[in-house]
């Protein structure tokens, strides 16, 4: 015949509002900032504190705080002096004080400013009590129980003393003990103001635990050993039944054998302190449930308590790393895995790989054992959601960290444009590259989206699984290498192809691949140029010839105009003395007119060669822009001078 044993978990067990709020604040800050610390443990739970330390968020004392740190004030709150000290140190303060504790601070401050002595029910060394006293501008006293309260009231607020007094409590103070104090105050000291500041969640948790303990054969209280409210839960319950106080399922295994034969237990209750994570409570409950089932499934003489308990402690919770064997791949892309527990494990398509273009069959195969991390569990449905992608990212982060140590250049794809930079996917890790490390000043980040890039790692935060990289660092190194090679091999006369980088009034700068060379205005074109931008545009690929190199200064002079396009060469190849040509007058002087023969080559029509008669002013006969026929009378090849004559073409009979 099977025994009947009911295992019931208190509805109010676990995180209270203030603790839950504080942890959400911490995790949100950790996702967005570096160098984050908490002023003391964020909550009184060793498992949570260790988890935060693994993410790089340590609990520090006030003396350990340094300038530039983001300091989170825990839910217990701190005194006014601590806020001032943090500001003086140059720390950025994020206040996660529980709103219920803040209300007590306000009450303590207001009453003490009115001249009242403040009496606080609680633990004198508890951080919450220390913070409350830090808001009292006058006298404050702490009492642990009714006897201490009576003594303090008599000494510091006697009836005939003529001074006011108020009594309030730590949020997690024992509800029964508080009620004892209130009854005495109402009866003996009605002049003392009483503020009931026990957190309603704390009171409800204690009341529920007390009711369970009256029915239970065994109560299990789960929470950190330095948690005040968890200690008080234990005190409430142990008055009514055997009570175990454990931090987790592992400790439960160690202490349960001391309880005795559980086969006679008909009711086991479970409750937990306000700073106990839900997954730890679930692990304890699961361990007890499975142990109870095992007790029923074996004969009395075969039952071994320690062996059966050992079978219950293979726990599963969010964030745990496990191994799973692929058992099936569904049509919708879900991968089903066996992780060795009673849960059915599954991997959603988005959690299989960072490369969403691949099919599940291309990533895993049935029968393969793969490393995974738990995302969510559901004991009601008997399922656990897993991720392979995040494990791969963790492994990829190791490669990223090694690349930083070695200075290795990595490759990745720009997947997103975000505020302040871009995200590059590489080795399953999302690497952030700031705008200043991605494009030159004024550059467009959108042009990088979807492109494959090469980059180096500047910073790695393994706790937060984040990395910062630089595309421009690779570009700078490549340019430096190319520059060194250029000055080793390049020489005047070499012809190279470069890209126009910038344009000024005096010339054009050309990127030769690591080295910038200058084409001065005179070397840009054989033609008359108003501005260099009339010849080339930024981004143009042009062919240039090295005119001069100075390795010491790093200056390189270039020539863009081509020798074969030299107008003088074109002229000498196609024109000769005695030839008649049509020219355009381009300028007038006192001694004659200059006329363009071809673009870039002008000749002089001397004033004596303009007409058969005497010419007093050139402008009386010729105008700028006028086209006239002339005869080439002389070519001075050395001085590159050409003499032209209109008179030589005039009929002899017209001569005067």
């Amino acid at each position: 015949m099977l025994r009947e044993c009911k295992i019931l978990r208190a509805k109010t067990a676990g995180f209270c509002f203030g603790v839950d709020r504080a942890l959400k604040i911490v995790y949100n800050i950790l996702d967005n900032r570096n160098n984050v610390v908490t002023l003391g443990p964020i909550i009184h739970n060793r498992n949570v504190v260790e988890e935060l330390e693994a993410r790089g968020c340590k609990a520090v004392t006030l003396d350990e705080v340094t300038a530039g740190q983001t300091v989170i004030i825990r839910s217990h709150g701190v005194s006014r002096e601590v806020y001032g000290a943090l500001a003086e140190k140059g720390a950025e303060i994020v206040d996660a004080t529980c709103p219920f504790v803040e209300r007590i601070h306000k009450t303590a401050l207001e009453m003490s400013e009115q001249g009242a002595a403040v009496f606080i029910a609680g633990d004198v060394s508890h951080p919450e009590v220390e913070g409350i006293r830090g808001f009292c501008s006058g006298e404050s006293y702490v009492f642990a129980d009714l006897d201490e309260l009576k003594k303090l009231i008599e000494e510091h607020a006697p009836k005939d003393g003529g001074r006011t007094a108020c009594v309030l409590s730590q949020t997690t103070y024992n509800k029964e003990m508080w009620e004892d104090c209130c009854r005495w105050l109402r009866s003996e000291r009605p002049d003392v103001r009483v503020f009931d500041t026990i957190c309603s969640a704390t009171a409800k948790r204690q009341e529920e635990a007390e009711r369970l303990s009256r029915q239970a054969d065994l109560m299990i209280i789960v929470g950190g050993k330095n948690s005040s409210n968890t200690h008080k839960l234990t005190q409430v319950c142990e008055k009514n039944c055997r009570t175990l106080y454990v931090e987790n399922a592992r400790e439960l295994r160690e202490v349960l054998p001391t309880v005795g034969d559980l086969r006679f237990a008909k009711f086991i209750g479970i409750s937990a302190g306000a700073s106990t994570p839900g997954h730890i409570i679930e692990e304890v409950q699961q361990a007890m449930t499975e142990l109870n089932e095992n007790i029923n499934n074996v004969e009395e003489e075969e039952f071994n308590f320690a062996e059966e308990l050992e079978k219950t402690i293979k726990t599963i919770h969010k964030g745990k790393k496990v191994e799973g064997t692929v058992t099936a791949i569904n049509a919708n892309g879900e991968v089903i895995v066996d992780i060795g527990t009673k849960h059915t494990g599954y991997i959603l398509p988005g959690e299989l790989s960072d490369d969403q273009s691949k099919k599940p069959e291309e990533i895993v195969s049935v029968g393969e054992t793969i490393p995974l991390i738990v995302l969510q569990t559901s004991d009601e449905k008997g399922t656990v959601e897993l991720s392979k992608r995040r494990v791969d990212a963790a492994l990829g982060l190791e490669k990223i960290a090694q690349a930083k140590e070695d200075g290795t250049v990595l490759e990745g794809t720009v997947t997103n444009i975000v505020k302040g930079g871009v995200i590059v996917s590489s080795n399953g890790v999302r690497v952030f590259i700031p705008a200043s490390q991605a494009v030159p000043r004024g550059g467009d980040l959108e042009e990088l989206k979807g492109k494959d890039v090469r980059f180096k790692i500047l910073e790695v935060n393994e706790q937060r699984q984040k990395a910062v990289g630089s595309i421009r660092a690779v570009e700078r190194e490549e340019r430096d290498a190319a520059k060194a090679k250029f000055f080793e091999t390049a020489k005047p006369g070499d012809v190279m192809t470069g890209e126009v980088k910038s344009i000024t009034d005096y010339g054009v700068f050309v990127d030769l691949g690591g080295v910038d060379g200058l084409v001065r205005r005179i070397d840009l074109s054989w033609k008359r140029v108003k501005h260099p931008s009339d010849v080339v545009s930024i981004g143009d690929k042009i062919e240039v010839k090295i005119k001069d190199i100075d390795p010491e200064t790093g200056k390189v002079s270039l020539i863009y105009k081509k020798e074969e396009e030299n107008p003088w060469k074109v002229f000498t190849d196609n024109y000769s003395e005695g030839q008649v040509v049509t020219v355009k007058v381009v300028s007038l002087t006192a001694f004659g007119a200059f006329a363009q023969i071809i673009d870039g080559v002008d000749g002089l029509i001397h004033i004596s060669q303009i007409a058969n008669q005497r010419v007093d002013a050139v402008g009386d006969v010729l105008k700028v822009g006028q086209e006239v026929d002339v005869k080439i009378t002389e070519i001075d090849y050395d001085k590159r001078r050409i003499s032209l004559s209109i008179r030589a073409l005039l009929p002899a009979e017209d001569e005067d």
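Residues 17-98 form a domain with the Rossmann fold fold (CATH 3.40.50.11270). The chain has six domains: 6-13+201-310, 17-98, 321-387, 392-475, 490-565, 570-654.
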